[in-house]
Amino acid sequence: MTLYSFVLFIHVVSAMGLFVGLALEGFVSLRFRVAQDAEQLQLFIRAFNLLRWIFIPSFGGILLGGLYLASKYGGGTFWIPGRPNRHARYHVRRWAHHWPENKSAKEDAWQSGRSIRGTIRPGE
């Protein structure tokens, strides 16, 4: 078993544990309302307090496993940065060949990452 498969396994099992904990929390919360006396209510409160033994390791496994996987397979960064101009540059590359007479606007749009749809072609 490689380190990647072990960390991925811990990450997935932790996510499943988090959902199990959420389901148990919902069940215990519903049982609060139907408690007949103080003894039953204390039983459900103790059960509710035991849920931290599910939530804390699950959250830790998700967080640490996710950070490791992101650092290993996210381009070498610890946190994956956003790329806001990626889609604009894709559209410029895809549609720029339709306006061959407006070469300067094409080059400007490519350099800045803006779309060239708003530019006016010569002769219009």
Number of strands: 0
Tally the structural domains. Answer: 2
pLDDT averaged residue by residue: 76
Low-confidence stretches: none
Global outline? rod-shaped
Q: What class would the helix/strand composition place it in?
A: mainly alpha
Write the layout of secondary structure elements.
Elements (H helix, E strand, L loop, with lengths): L2 H31 L4 H13 L1 H22 L12 H10 L7 H10 L12
Helix pairs in contact: 1-2, 1-3
What does this structure look like?
The chain is mainly alpha-helical and 124 residues long. It has two domains: 3-73; 83-124, no CATH class. It is built from five helices and no strands. The chain has helices at residues 3-33, 38-50, 52-73, 86-95, 103-112. Helix 1 (3-33) packs antiparallel against helix 2 (38-50) and helix 1 (3-33) packs antiparallel against helix 3. The longest helix has 31 residues, at 3-33.
Name its key features:
124 residues, mainly alpha, 0% strand
Characterize this entry briefly.
The protein is mainly α. The chain has 2 domains: 3-73; 83-124, no CATH class. The protein is 69% helix and 0% strand.
